[in-house]
Amino acid sequence: MNNKWIKTVESLLKANSGVDMQHASTSAIYHAVSRATMAEIADTWQKCKNAPKKRVGYLSAEFLVGRAIFANLYNLGKLDEVRAIMTERGVDISSFEDIEDAALGNGGLGRLAACYLESGATVGIPLDGYGIRYRYGLFRQEFENGFQKECADDWQQHGDPWSYRRDDESVLVKFSDFTVRAVPYDMPVIGYGGKTINTLRLWQSEQPDSFDFAAFDSMQIDKIAKDNIRCESISYALYPNDSTEKGRILRLRQEYFFASASVQDLIRKHKQKGLPIEKINEYVAFQLNDTHPVFAIPEFIRLVMQEGMRFEDAFVLARSVFNFTNHTILGEALERLDMKRVRKLLPKIAKILTMMQARIEKEFPDGKLFLIKDDTVHMANVAIYAGSKINGVAALHTEILKKSTFHDWYEAYPERFLNVTNGVTPRRWLALCNPELSALITEKIGDGWQADLERLKELEKYADDPEVRRAFAEIKHLKKVQLSEYVYKKEGVLLPPDFIFDVQAKRLHEYKRQLMNAFSILYYYFRIKEGKEKDFKPTAFIFGAKAAPAYYNAKGIIKFINAIADKVNNDPDVNDKLRVVFVTDYNVSYAEKIMPAADISEQISMAGMEASGTGNMKFMLNGTVTLGTMDGANVEICEEAGRENEYIFGATVEEVKEIKKNYNPWAIYNSDPELKRIVDTLDDGTFDDQGSGMFRSVKESLFGGWSADHYLVLQDFRDYVRAKSELNRDYGSEEFLAKCVRNTANGGKFSSDRSILDYAENVWKV
Ligand code: 26V
Q1: How far is 757 from 547, CA to CA, in rounded Å?
Q2: What is the mean pLDDT of residues 597-623?
Q3: What's the mean pLDDT in 551-577?
Q4: CATH superfamily of 431-648+712-750
Q5: 561 phi and psi, to 5 degrees?
Q6: What is the pLDDT of residues 63-98, one digit of tens each?
Q7: How many CB atoms lie within 10 A of CB 361?
């Protein structure tokens, strides 16, 4: 950065905080540095906005962007310079780590959206994000006696210097009972190299008129306040992935709110260019990130009909601009909305959905394909019927969509289905979070891999070079030392860096089987105590996960793992061999510290359940072997790296289907005394759930009712510990080190640049 930039920082400090650098708070300096950088990029950003080409609107209820400042400076090529300039002035920029992440997403789906925007800007595709500017993001997690406690995530506590409010581009969104103003906040999305800057536009809901004077005159202060709250409540908080029904109405309002605002915005921009509405498909494409933005389709049809088009033409036009990505086959996650509610809140949208249903009845009179059934609208069906393309997020997942989830649709429209395997941005998930490994890579293969990740292949030959293996291992050790210090400071648990770091970091869900991992810890715990694991290499089990607030069993599993951690870490018989930690408030910034320090990447979902996974890719790039099932993108990780370089276990999708025909968890439990003893710790007094009943409920999920051990924890347990023990034996050997190198070397496919180019070519045609 030049002289001008630091002058701007200093004058911003003076103007906004009335202090110089020596006396300013971290938050004030953060603000000034960010704003000075915004000024620096303003011209490029403006130029990119007016690109005359076709633009893509990525509609997503979630963008889990994390911390912006380091990634932005890195992509501008200014991070080292800024660090040096600030150090000269007595400021350590790592203090900006105290600034909260923008956690405007739950997990995989939201983080994917953030990676995709960054890649779009990097490969130079005009891709803009549209979403909601939640006042509160995903809850912050604390533990109280080992129980998860949710706290409000006030991510704007230190301001929001990375966005501009654009009042002049506000739009109105109408519900049957009231109207709100959608106010856009624009964040720059800076591509690697800084040449392209796209926009993430997040809508905030506000009252249409700032003040109701009539009400004020008649002293109806409570009415004023109520109206205000009603409007602002729409973008007040991000919904956690919950299966509960509460809050459905507000959720529906959220979905329509941002879909409508985004579509209005793009149509308005199109008209401002003086272009005819019938040609909008030559200038705009929409990607619907899961079903949350699907209201955009009937809203689009409504708006172009307002421009004078007939329904049929409007429908055909919609079909040429919308595309849809599915992210899960989990039944309870497929959105179905009560039409009674839609009619009540959004009568015009309900009418258009009904017209669409009439159209499909005419086209397919047998009723196999439908949008509305039993007065319930199936949002995924709307997206498939009224869109050009539908994609799954990994090869296996897309096959499952075609074969079962959307089989009837696939038969009717095979040409609409395609796969686009997920990816992650190598800038944040390798270059930035692991500068040590990045330096080694650059030393070996030269610069440029950051934006051309297939070049990592050139590392493959070094897998056979003992020196490079050792260098890899030394870096891994260094990252473990760094993580260990951080975890000790934050969690008060000591993880010796010479232990194996075995990590499972992802949302907590029964299908992801954190419980099976917990059981495996108890397996080693008992065996070590009995002297049966003489050669077991010391292992630290690291968990990071949030459970949806209303997901009772997920919270029970968190408490269970925390109870295990307590017991194991304090037992002198085993704590030279085992450590367990459940890190608090796992988020993007924590992930950036964890991924580079992992020796083992746990990807152990029941086959068929994890659509793709993206954490698996982040671990791989950082030289970590996968301990996993043949699920999601794990399959492709094996394809790329060679299955012999991962540790694969468990039932495959086909085997799961077979096993489920007559599955009996009791039989497994009764025939395996070691496993029985482990499972029984849930209710034999080994652990205390403080009278909550949670552990009993977790145990019942394995046996009780129609869905006994729905996710085959007991079934896969033996093969899991078989693979885990094999990994433990191999660890540290020359061959194991080679596997680590081969994982990084073969991670090229999993760059989100590749995913975005796939979308551009096969879906958006830009
Ligand atoms: C939704 C819900 C809604 C209600 C019940 C509980 C529940 C549990 C999970 C979900 C998933 C929402 C969609 C999602 O985040 N899918 C993830 O998308 C990632 C990016 O494509 C992918 O890598 C993950 O495998 C997939 O789970």
Answers
A1: 34
A2: 98
A3: 98
A4: Glycogen Phosphorylase B; (3.40.50.2000)
A5: -65, -40
A6: 999 999 999 999 999 999 999 999 999 999 999 999
A7: 15
pTM as predicted: 0.98
- Fold match, 55-145+154-333+390-422 / 431-648+712-750: yes
Q: What is the pLDDT of residue 215?
A: 73
- In the set 506, 546, 559, 749, the catalytic residue is 506
Higher pLDDT, 53 or 198: 198
When the pLDDT of each residue in the chain is averaged and rounded to a whole number, the result is 97
How far, in Å, are 18, 32, 38, 167, 622 from residue 35 at the CA level?
A: 16, 5, 5, 19, 32
Percent of the chain scored above 90 by pLDDT?
A: 95
Tell me the pLDDT tens digit for each residue of 449-495: 999 999 999 999 999 999 999 999 999 999 999 999 999 999 999 99
Q: Is 54 a catalytic residue?
A: no
Atom of ligand 1 minimally distant from the CA of 551:
6
From 416, 476, 480, 512, the catalytic residue: 512
Cα gap 621→600, rounded to integer Å: 13
Cβ partners under 8 Å of residue 603, min gap 6: 610, 613, 615, 616, 626, 627, 628, 629, 631, 632, 634
**What one-character DSSP code corresponds to residue 164?**
E
Say if strands 179-190 and 140-144 run parallel, antiparallel, or are unpaired. Answer: unpaired
- So where are the chain's domains? 55-145+154-333+390-422, 431-648+712-750
CA dihedral (173, 175, 179, 185) positive or negative = negative
Mutation pick for ligand 1 pocket among 104, 111, 327 (CB with most ligand atoms within 8 Å): 327
Give ∠ CA 328-332-338 in degrees, rounded to 5: 120
Nearest Cα residue to atom 1 of ligand 1: 333
Catalytic: which of 327, 479, 699, 724? 327
Q: In ligand 1, which atom is closest to the CA atom of 333?
A: 3
Pocket test for ligand 1, best of 64, 244, 330, 606 (most atoms within 8 A of CB): 330
Q: How many helices (H) and strands (E) does the chain have?
A: 30, 23
Catalytic residue among 201, 253, 397, 507: 507
Q: Is 376 among the residues known to form the active site?
A: no
The yes-or-no answer on residue 507 being catalytic is yes
660 as an active site residue: the answer is no
Confidence tier at 706 by pLDDT (50, 70, 90): low
Q: Which CATH superfamily is domain 55-145+154-333+390-422 in?
A: Glycogen Phosphorylase B; (3.40.50.2000)
Residue of the CA atom closest to atom 24 of ligand 1: 613
Ligand 1 binding pocket (C-beta < 6 A) is: 107-109, 112, 241-243, 290, 327-328, 330, 332-333, 393, 422, 509, 610-614, 632
pLDDT digits (tens, 9 = 90+) for 200-242: 999 999 999 766 677 777 778 888 889 999 999 999 999 998 7
**What are φ and ψ of residue 222, in 5° steps?**
-65, -30
Let me know if 512 is a catalytic residue: yes
